[in-house]
Design a protein that fits this description.
Layout (H helix, E strand, L loop, with lengths): L1 H32 L16 H8 L1 H33 L3 H16 L2 H14 L6 H25 L3 H9 L4 H29 L3 H6 L7 H7 L6 H35 L1
Helix pairs in contact: 1-11, 2-11, 3-6, 3-8, 4-6, 6-8, 7-8
């Protein structure tokens, strides 16, 4: 039995290592070659930061980064607020209405991006709204909201409805019950929904391609429009990976430090 267990553990560990390598080895490869002195993606000729310097000197790339970050931040903020409020409202709705709306909410998630992109483009054209950064931002808000709702709803199902009602009975206003009772309990789910929304907006291409104006392009559109591969993209990808890693570390470390501080204060 022990031999079978050890063999099973070895197989599981080996499988896990292969999966991790499959996911992270390409990212590591890009990060290493972002410091390559030559344009080659096969041979490493020497260490250099020339592609980072070229990235910061490339005005078109910097503009695409600017539009990407601005649109992602606005879409994340708006979709997080709207999606959280919608999820809280749905949690108090009748089961039949809640089920029907959640099924509708799943449509943008299950739909291919090309369908959503063409639908939004035709909508903007039908109401005679010229495509620009405004339409791009509205499109991103539209497809980010369902992900926030799907992230917050499971946490709301775990809450005790009597807690909010008790707060109202003790004199709290509906706003106070929302901000001081409900939201603190579902904050991790809200934060997860915000991260998903930011990620979906940041790397979107198909919907952005159909809803952005001629003078607006995000990072994915910029990379798609390149006639030849520019190694500066490796430098940009490396900086994005580092930024995301720092955000994830902070998101997990700060709550743990706060919880540890609260435990020390209690003792």
């Amino acid at each position: 039995m022990e031999k079978k267990k050890s063999g099973s553990r070895f197989f599981t560990s080996g499988y896990l290592i292969l999966v991790m390598l499959f996911i992270y080895l390409p990212i590591l490869y890009v990060m290493v070659f972002s410091f390559n002195d030559s344009k080659s993606m096969i041979s490493f000729s020497g260490f250099s930061t020339r592609w980072y310097e070229a990235m910061f000197e490339n005005r078109e790339m910097l503009e695409s980064i600017y539009y990407t970050v601005v649109v992602a931040l606005i879409a994340t903020a708006v979709s997080t607020v709207v999606g959280t409020i919608a999820a809280i409202g749905l949690s108090k709705a009748r089961p039949l209405i809640r089920s029907a709306i959640l099924e509708i909410n799943n449509l943008p998630v299950l739909n291919p991006d090309i369908v959503t992109a063409i639908s939004l483009m035709l909508l903007f054209l039908s109401v005679k709204i010229q495509r620009s950064i405004v339409t791009l931002t509205l499109a991103h808000i539209t497809f980010c909201i369902p992900y926030v709702i799907l992230s917050v709803m499971p946490k709301l199902r775990q809450l005790d409805d009597n807690v909010a009602e008790a707060a109202l009975d003790l004199g709290a206003t509906p706003w106070q019950a929302l901000t001081k009772v409900i939201i603190p309990q579902v904050y991790p789910a809200i934060f997860s929904g915000a991260l998903i929304a930011f990620s979906m907006s940041f790397d979107d291409f198909v919907i952005s391609f159909f809803t952005a104006g001629v003078d607006v392009q995000n990072i994915s559109m910029y990379v798609y429009s390149m006639k030849r591969f520019n190694p500066s993209v490796n430098a940009l990808s490396t900086l994005i990976v580092i930024a995301v890693t720092l955000i994830l570390v902070a998101a997990n470390l700060i709550p743990a430090l706060k919880e540890r501080k609260n435990k020390k204060e209690e003792t």
